Predict the structure.
Amino acid sequence: MITMNCNALDRRNFLKVSLMGGTALAMPWAANRAPAAATEAAPAAPAAAAAAKAPSRVAVTAGEDRADLAFQALKPFSKEIAAAIGDKRVVIKPNILVTNRPLAATDAKNLEGILEFLKSIGKDGKVVIAESTAMGSVMTGYANYGYDKLAAKYGVKLMDLDKDDYETLWCFDERDFHPHPCRMGTTLLDPNSFLISAAKFKTHDRVGVTLSLKNVVVGAAIKRDGGEKAEGGYLGNSDKPLIHGGGFRGINYNLYALAPRLHPHLAVIDGYEGMEGQGPGNGTPVNSRVCVAGLDWLAADRVAVELMGVDFGKIGYLTYCAKTGLGEGDLAKIEIVGPALKDYIKPYQLPRNMDEQLIWMKPASSG
């Protein structure tokens, strides 16, 4: 049994303890209630071990038809996806940071490819597109980006996660080294949902890159109407800043710690036109013309990082997830279905503050 007091994580031992505890330590922060003084590690181990042992395949497609890239990337997994969905509701989580910048949002063509694939395997009967934007009304974003037309064509429900019921999870803040309650939409936590992360290639000014996992975790945190702009430009009464953990260490740890509860069952990462530089909202376009898909979300994120020409070892939250067996992070152990990665690597310019972000790699000061 591993025992710990959540309030005892001081600056001297935080990173050391977090990596020693692995997935078991992640679970107290992600529980439905405040962490207890003593937490047993055993329940989390089987799932982590199974994820680590399962063979990981990731499909990569390249070409000029954005919708078809997604469709073709999913075809190798047709039987597995159909079986995994079963009678569950399919929830597609796009990435809509703001409502008026197409480069920062999942393109409707990418969603069209996913919806056509679901139709081809007979799993288009119960499909929801669900999102919570950082700023503004998601319904405005849906209209601006053409999602309303997709909904009409495919009979899909468009859902505002900010109006969803919520469950309280726990987010760490490096400024006070305490857990804080964070409201997370129940739709993305529902065990009867099959969750597809329709992410895209983007750099990020706090964690290096944002791909399938981060799309789900940050999108799950809800905001309520009203309030002035708060930290990071988010609207007041938003719990998204809580996930950011007060700094580079905090956000990397929270993404890792929440991953066991909030991860996609299927990752579809659109690299047709990605964003480099000052992502996730203020970067510039990169024409990568690829798409990545896989049932092991970490393996899919790992392949996307490679195609972006980014050093995987510099991405803190993904490194933590790989170290603790939440998926396959070793590129040599991932079966690539499609063309050789080396032929499609296009290095992305990282954010100007990337060197500062790497503080997560250093021991925390006792300060």
Summary: The chain has a mean pLDDT of 86. The chain is about 35% helix and 20% strand. The domain at 56-359 is CATH 3.40.50 (Rossmann fold). The chain has one domain: 56-359.
